[in-house]
Write a structure and sequence with these properties.
373 residues, alpha/beta, TIM Barrel, 2 domains
Length: 373
């Protein structure tokens, strides 16, 4: 098989989605499946939908178009603020978008009117992550302007946590977001239908013992795809953590000194020679590098130690684990490594378990580097 490649187990993605939908449903919280880490890969999106997510969300319009072209007709939201250059496509392909800029919303309204439709707007509120968001004290006035804008409808409010500062939200944060929803309704009138509390980092709070208040939605990517908590990197109980695996081929394995250091031959002349350390270690080179993935986000098999990487090579210590040239190594990925690998054109994607899915789309877009087995 082509190497390097990512192998994808759709059954495990579906199972993760189903588990999270069921557990959060007990608290009145719906799940939006976030597909940006897999570049809107249609089969992965289908697996999320088969697991029961209420809709999908992505940050790139090309990914959304890819899913629509594959026949996916569920609600899809743009979770990054729409680009002015992409307004027409956003209106055509997205049911809703997350916004923080009034000029952008005005342009969305104009584009929606031109297409004879209405577009739902969800306002992102700054709750401390210090990425995008409207300041809480400005939210009511901002919401009133959105309500008065033709072509758009205020659907709800949302917040981000643990994206920039890696700090998980607290119960106080979530209570404050609930109060903001109440305040918007009191000041502006229309019911705030969606209060999206954040992403996978919210799960410990959402599944805890406290009240969830007005929060009725979470946007989950990492938890569904990798079964991990982004704030800690720890596995989430009951979820699969191996739905994705990276395979890389061994192109060299050789015993080498653990260090080769320069030493002076004649200090007065400035001459140097190389002095080999007598301790030999087995260094193995894999045909995968920084151009293919985030090599710092890779997890190697037991007794294999990551040494470093360049653009096209990853070097590991295999002294305690025999490998041979031409063999392959199975490697785990964190969210950053997965996102880079899925977007890399030279990394093949192999999908397993498609026959187990309900198959909403029978005409998925198959890239030259994607294989269904």
């Amino acid at each position: 098989m082509t190497s390097p490649r990512v192998e994808i187990d759709l059954g495990k993605i579906q199972a993760n989605a189903r588990c999270l939908v069921r557990r959060l449903g007990d608290y009145g919280i719906s799940v939006t499946g976030v597909t940006k880490a897999v570049c809107g890969q249609p089969d992965v999106a289908e697996a999320m939908l088969d697991g029961g997510v209420a809709g999908l969300a992505d940050a790139r319009i090309k990914n959304v178009v890819r899913m629509r072209t594959a026949g996916i007709n569920c609600p899809i939201s743009m979770i990054r603020a729409p680009l002015v250059s992409e307004m027409e496509n956003v209106i055509q392909h997205c049911d809703a978008s997350y916004n923080t800029d009034m000029d952008t919303i005005l342009k969305l309204g104009a584009a929606a009117k031109q297409q004879g439709t209405s577009h739902d707007v969800i306002l992102m509120v700054e709750m401390g992550d210090m990425r995008e968001g409207i300041l809480p004290e400005s939210l009511n006035d901002f919401a009133a302007r959105v309500i008065a804008t033709p072509g758009v409808a205020l659907k709800g409010i949302a917040a981000n946590f643990a994206c920039m500062d890696n700090v998980a939200p607290t119960a106080d944060d979530m209570a404050a977001l609930s109060r903001l929803a109440d305040n918007v309704e009191g000041a502006c009138g229309p019911f705030v239908a969606l209060v999206s509390g954040g992403g996978s980092a919210n799960l410990p709070w959402a599944l805890g013992e406290g009240s969830t208040g007005r929060i009725n939605n979470l946007r989950l990517g990492e938890a569904i795809l990798l079964g991990t908590d982004p704030a800690t990197g720890h596995p989430i109980s009951g979820l699969h953590t191996d739905a994705f695996a990276l395979y890389a081929e061994v192109i060299e394995t050789r015993n080498k000194p653990s260090a080769i250091l320069p030493a002076s031959i004649a200090p007065e002349l400035g001459g140097l020679r190389l002095v080999r350390n007598d301790v030999l270690r087995t260094r193995t080179i894999l045909a995968v590098g920084q151009q293919d993935t985030d090599t710092n986000g890779l997890t190697f098999p037991t007794e294999i130690t990551f040494i470093g990487a360049t653009s096209d090579h990853a070097v590991v210590d295999t002294t305690k684990s025999a490998v041979s040239v031409g063999s392959e190594m199975k490697i785990g990925m964190n969210y950053s490594a997965l996102m880079r690998a899925m977007s890399a054109p030279n990394v093949a994607k192999v999908v397993h378990g498609k026959q187990k899915m309900n198959g909403r789309s029978k005409h998925c877009e198959i890239q030259p580097y994607l294989t269904l087995v």
